[in-house]
Amino acid sequence: MKITCVSDSHCQLSKIIDKYPMVGDLLIHSGDLTYRGDLKEMPSQLYDLGRLAKNFKYGCVFTLGNHDWLGELEPELMQSLAEENNVTWLRDQEVTVNGIRIHGSAYTPAFCGWAFQTSPFDPEVGVDPEEVWGKVKEGVDILVTHGPSYGHLDLVQGNSAHKGCPSLMRHIQRAQPK
């Protein structure tokens, strides 16, 4: 199965569609469809995502990112918009596509007060990452996240400290996605 992965398109999907023709079996978008994730941006980005998904045999599954506020603040509206555009929003859940189990979550370690934040220390800042990552079932084939796990591609330019999520790394080791 040919899977195409995209992330951090930040309101630029129409340019991506025009510049890079994409086809295949499944499209996965792993968050930050928008800059602010409001009602001005999100409908058009989901429309473009749906338009792009038509090039893929099994369509598109996606998760949101820290910029995509609408999903955190108005999840029912977000779900409705996703359904209208025939794309599947992975909201801390698993879906099976052509026999492949895919789990997706938007959560990232707390950073500058953005959407979908986790914090093991302060419930005022975000949800407990153990609550989020504990939902990932063993044997899942693909785990779609917006943020990195601890120690895996999680260094920020100009800073040698790891910024990824230790809880996510533990649950990846437990679930062992393919």
Give me some keywords for this one.
alpha/beta; four-stranded parallel sheet; 9 strands; 178 residues; 28% helix; 6 helices; globular; three-stranded mixed sheet
Word description of this protein:
The protein has 178 residues and is α/β, with parallel strands linked by helices. It is 28% helix and 19% strand. It is built from six helices and nine strands, in the order βαβαβααβββββαβα. It has helices at 13-19, 42-53, 69-73, 75-84, 129-133, 166-175; strands at 3-6, 26-30, 60-63, 88-89, 93-97, 100-105, 108-109, 117-118, 142-145. The strands form three sheets. Strands 1-2-3-4 form a four-stranded parallel β-sheet. A three-stranded mixed β-sheet has the order 5-6-9, with no helix packed on it. Helix 2 (42-53) runs parallel beside helix 4 (75-84). The chain is globular, with a radius of gyration of 16 Å. The model has no long low-confidence stretch (mean pLDDT 93).
Structure, briefly:
With 178 residues, the chain is α/β, with parallel strands linked by helices.
